[in-house]
Fold this sequence. Notes:
The chain is α+β, with helices and mostly antiparallel strands. It has four domains: about 1-65 and about 210-245, ATPase, nucleotide binding domain (Nucleotidyltransferase, domain 5); about 75-205, no CATH class; about 265-465 and about 575-639, no CATH class; about 470-560, Dna Ligase, domain 1. The strands form nine sheets. Strands 19-14-13-22-23-34-33-30 form an eight-stranded mixed beta sheet, sandwiched between helices. The radius of gyration is 25 Å and the shape is globular.
Amino acid sequence: MRIGIDAGGTFTDFVVLRDGGRMETFKLRSNPRDPASVILAGIVQAAGGAKTAEVIHGSTVATNALLERKGARTAFVTTAGFEDILHIGRQNRAALYDLAPPPKRFLTTRELCFGVKERSHADGSIETVPSKAALTKLRAALKRAGVESIAVCLLHAYQNPQNEQLIAKALDGLAYLSISSDVCPEFREFERGSTTMLNSYVGPLMDRYLRRLKESSPFPVSIMQSNGGLLSASEARRHPVRTVLSGPAGGVVGAFAIAKNNGYLSAIGFDMGGTSTDVSLCDGMPKETLEAVVDGVPVRVPMLDIHTVGAGGGSIARMDEGGLLRVGPESAGADPGPACYGAGDLPTVTDAHVVLGRISAEQFLGGAMHIDSDRAARSIATLAAKLDLGVAEAAEGVLRVANANMERAIRAVSMERGYDPRLFALVAFGGCGGLHACEIARELGIRTVLAPAQAGVLSALGMLLAPRVRDYSAGVLGHKEIEKTFLRLEQTARKENPGAKILRFADVRYAGQSYELTVPWTARKPLRAFHLAHHMEYGYSDAKRTTEMVAVRVRAASTVTAPKLEFPSAAAHKKEEAARKVFTGGRWKRIPVIHSEEVTKKISGPALVIDYGSTTLAPAGWSMRRGVSGTLILEHQGV
């Protein structure tokens, strides 16, 4: 038995694959103050007395610690004279014309940045080894500072880790410790230092969390990585930086598995949850990046290219100082949650859907969760009074603003990267994805929307489909014996991942450039992929121009037996009304309400399709039919 778990901001989703391929799903309310308690309760519920199982978990512990700046008290140790490297950063300005940009939020203070007298050269040769007296003094200073965690990043340690290893040995047992030659053995001191710093910043929290799961869970636990692969819990405790986009990565894997099964190799994943919306693009395979910036912190580890905006079902709607309607990024979260959950009072996107008739008390989680329609209406009415609008008009305005926020996110991963969104299918999942997808698709010119069966738990399903993946890298700028470096990494990969498929990649650039592209590396015509990728990304390429290799990468991927993507029949689902009064297209209409299993032939909108944990709205001008794996395929009928 395998159990996939996605811990979201509002709900924690569980997908259980039992012996023989039978699949079950359920949701539990998340507990931000103690997420492990919900995970453990769900494992017990899912197990049902089973003796053996494997748990695959998408963790938000590292993500939340970073976003809320609630990580460990962390010291940064570097080469003497370079203590300011994290605070100086790059000269790039995110808001070029903002004369008073908000101050950056750093992971540590300048007082906790320590320098050690040592020096390595760019070719890896060591000029100065840190003295025993200097290391003794450093240990004493760190102890006085009361740090919980330490990040070590020395100049050129990616070429020769000897001095970092000496420091690590001297500080052993003092606190949680990361060294850059282990976390990110690549050039560019700032990005390498930032990644190592983040690893140590979230390390103690992740270590305690995973240790508790290991001690309390009756089954072994694997963790979803940001690159779409699985990682053992012990490896995640050592490299927690690889889990900062753990949950969204599961959604990417699940979305593109659904798209591929239905014959769409070009798709955009659209995951609208309770707190945020995650979008990603797949043109044959999911896009990855090494240049992610998470809440202002550069992270240089392989990650799926996911763009996140603060627009979800729990996003709070308000009127700003200028009298304009704003939605998000603040969220009501799991506690108190949207007003319709019965505890909160602030108007949210979910409350707007309830007011407009798109969500009813009977349909939410199959009727298992109470929906307070009157409370939702009161919250929207308060907002409507401030905006001098009717209640329905205010609720529709909330959805239109939320849609605009999400449209910008989709443009960021498509148009801004050189892709035409009209050539892609939109895979809508998460609890609210299906309610917004067709309206957003119409604005972007997308003609096809895929709404997977059990869309509300697709991220958890993606974790059951993910392979086990380990990434290895080495900086090679200026090196001539590239093949030897590849072979060294492959030897380590095969030793630590017996039976895994080994893949080669390289970071390549034209001579003189300060940026590079990661491309597959083959013995025959190895640079062809780089020239094609450069033309796609920047609009030009030059096969005659001199190239440079900056880093080499090896990926060890162990495939898993993918389950058949057929969810169980929703036996005992409450019979929905045949039709319902819904506000759509600017006016109230009485439209059909259909359970997803009842879509057996082509149906024209407008219509609402109900599933456990999610609802899909097919507006006028859209038709829908049933595809593979219970997926609803919605198609726009206009030209």
